[in-house]
């Protein structure tokens, strides 16, 4: 097999719009794995909400989580932190003041936990969909813990305004602000991305980039798609992601991951 490692984005790529992992996709991933290929889920999710999907695939191994900010190994003993790119809460205090004033929902994440200051039924449904159980605290400013990701959740027009304001004011300072979905903005360590995490992992496994295929659907997938020997975009990706990809597969609702694995890994 040409590819020794397959990096898979989860939401909008591996899962369909109903957040379902289809049986056909599971079977194809298992076949690729059984032929000696590493399967690595690369997601904006936390480890706890990624692990059930790895288990559904019947696999153990490394997961790149929090958009590359935390790499975790999962086996029968549980979760072990392999690497993280962290920052401190004081570094995001200007942005915290902004979202509190504007009543925009946010959470902050350590590698293994998520913290929020308030929650409505709308946010509860979102967290339920992503298999997340956040911890409610009075103020995240008092946590005193290393943070790997700070996320805003709101409607696209609200986040468009936030993105413009923060860029004009350089409110995120030396940190990195990315749009990880229509409804999400993430702020992270400037070197934290899926590409850098994948590069570190590949080096530890002695796998050349030419032996890696990465499949994604959004702008937070671009670095890993660029690092991989073959960068694949599912058809439901935004135009900028489609243009950046080496090849395009079917959409997440049409089992694009299954199609790409059949075409580029299992065809003889």
UniProtKB/TrEMBL annotation:
Signal sequence range: none
InterPro entries named in the record: Cof, HAD-like_sf, HAD-SF_hydro_IIB, HAD_sf
SUPFAM superfamilies: HAD-like
Domain of life: Bacteria
Transmembrane segments: none
Cross-referenced NCBIfam families: Cof-subfamily, HAD-SF-IIB
Name of protein: Sugar phosphate phosphatase
Species the sequence originates in: Paenibacillus marchantiophytorum
């Amino acid at each position: 097999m040409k590819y020794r490692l397959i990096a898979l984005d989860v939401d909008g790529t591996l899962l369909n719009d109903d957040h379902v992992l289809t049986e056909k996709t599971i079977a194809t991933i298992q076949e690729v794995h059984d032929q000696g290929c590493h399967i690595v889920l690369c997601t904006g999710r936390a480890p706890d909400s990624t692990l059930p999907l790895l288990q559904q695939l019947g696999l153990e191994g490394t997961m790149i989580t929090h958009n590359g900010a935390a790499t975790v190994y999962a086996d029968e003993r549980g979760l072990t932190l392999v690497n993280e790119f962290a920052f401190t809460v004081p570094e995001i205090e200007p942005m915290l003041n902004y979202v509190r004033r504007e009543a925009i929902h946010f959470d902050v994440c350590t590698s293994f936990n998520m913290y929020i200051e308030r929650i409505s039924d709308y946010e509860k449904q979102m967290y339920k969909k992503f298999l997340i159980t956040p911890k409610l605290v009075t103020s995240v400013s008092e946590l005193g813990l290393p943070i790997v990701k700070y996320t805003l959740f709101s409607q696209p027009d609200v986040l468009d305004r936030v993105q413009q304001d923060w860029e004009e004011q350089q409110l995120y300072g030396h940190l990195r602000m990315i749009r990880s979905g229509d409804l999400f903005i993430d702020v992270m360590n400037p070197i934290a991305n899926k590409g850098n995490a994948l590069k570190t992992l590949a080096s530890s496994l002695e796998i050349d980039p030419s032996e890696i295929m990465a499949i994604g659907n959004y702008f937070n997938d671009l670095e890993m798609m660029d690092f991989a020997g073959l960068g694949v975009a599912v058809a439901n990706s935004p135009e900028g992601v489609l243009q950046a990809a080496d090849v395009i597969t079917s959409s997440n609702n049409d089992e694009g991951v299954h199609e790409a694995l059949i075409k580029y890994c299992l065809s003889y």
